[in-house]
Amino acid sequence: MSGLSKSPWIIHYDASSCNGCDIEVLACLTPIFDVERLGVVNTGNPKHADIFLVTGAVNEQSRDVIRNIYNQMPEPKVVVAVGICASSGGIFRECYNISGGIDSVIPVDVYVPGCAARPEAIVDGVVQALGVLEQKHKDTQAAVSNMDNVLYQRAEKSDAPEILSLQKTAGQCEAEVYNEENLPALQQTLEELRNDFDRAIFIKAVVNGKIIGSVRGRARDDTALVSSISVHPYFQRRDIGRRLVEEVEKAFPDAKRFEAFTGQPNQRSLHLLGRAGYQEFKTEPFTPAITWVYLQKERK
Ligand code: SF4
Which residues are paired to 53 by β-bridges? Predict the structure, then answer.
């Protein structure tokens, strides 16, 4: 980890900035501030980046690009919103084409204030981001060594940001399996997920206070619909997905039947649901590359 924090790789994206903040980001690379002397490397490849530096507010064109860059970055990763536009939408907040700050699309870890944000503040934001990056790495390591103590609990609306972040991380692995970036799990916004709490029961798997898995269940007549099984990639292949399914089933004591769906060719999900006792009963094409497979199970 010391290598990571001593030489963080940063990717910068201009979401719809007036260029003011971007000039200041550029100033950080000039000899006066020279962040490269601190080991910072400006990369153009999200798969090599640890820190995502975003300027400007979110508009229709930048929303998908922000998601795609974020989803392609490896874990652990940190997002820094630079300037008031990236933090909240700023003076453009009420514009017809602006949907808000960066946190309306992806979770933000560090906010750098200012219009334009000063280079000193941007460098300070990157230093804070390094602290967050190191902490995320430590949390993950601690959780991995404490796997015997996973707690399965009912999630609350206040867990929504952490669950969304988990869903996007886990969803990225699925996107690679399907070779499809536009999966519904990757498109969901924080507001949509918060609204889901009014319709569904969420169960979370927690280690050391960190959510590493989640699932949701919803009642339809005498059936409980089980969906959105997400397990953090670090913790997959440890039976957490099957335990989550088992726990969410317990939340519907009156259900006579359970139904779930996953995509073909996601063999891992099919296998997980098979081990939980589910059997395929219908398929439905979603995209040329993905077929939804519906599975069911009667209550014994
Ligand atoms: S915060 Fe100010 S300088 Fe930065 S992008 Fe917005 S309007 Fe431009």
Answer: 12, 80
Q: Which pLDDT score, from 0 to 100, does residue 291 have?
A: 86
Prediction pTM value: 0.69
In the chain, DSSP finds a helix count (H) and a strand count (E) of 10, 14
Buried/exposed 36-53: b ≥16 CB within 10 Å, e otherwise: eeeebebeeebeebbbbb
3-state helix, strand, coil in the chain (%, to 5): 45, 25, 30
**CA of 88 relative to ligand 1 center, distance in Å:** 11
The residue written with tokens 């064109």 in the block is: 61
Mean pLDDT, the chain, integer: 89
Number of residues in the chain? 300
Q: Which pair of structure tokens corresponds to residue 20?
A: 């003011």
Q: What is the distance between the alpha carbons of residues 139 and 157, in angstroms, rounded to a whole number? A: 22
Instruction: Give Dmax over CA atoms of the chain in angstroms.
Output: 71
Give CA–CA dist 92/204, Å, rounded.
Answer: 37
* Cα separation, 283 vs 270, whole angstroms: 13
- Write down the pLDDT at residue 177: 72
Which structure tokens are listed for 42? 């400006």
- On the question of pLDDT at 3 being above 70, the answer is no
At 9, give phi and psi (nearest 5°): -100, 130
pLDDT in tens, 181-199: 677 777 788 889 999 999 9
- In terms of Cα–Cα distance, which of 191, 186, 152 is closest to 168? 186
Question: Torsion angle of alpha carbons 257, 261, 265, 271, nearest 10°?
Answer: -40
Measuring from atom 5 of ligand 1, which residue has the nearest CA?
Answer: 17
**275 token code pair:** 């081990």
CA 141 to centroid of ligand 1, rounded, Å: 38
CB atoms within 10 A of CB 30: 10
Query: Within a 10 A sphere around the Cβ of 260, how many other Cβ atoms?
Result: 24
Pocket test for ligand 1, best of 13, 16, 25, 84 (most atoms within 8 A of CB): 84
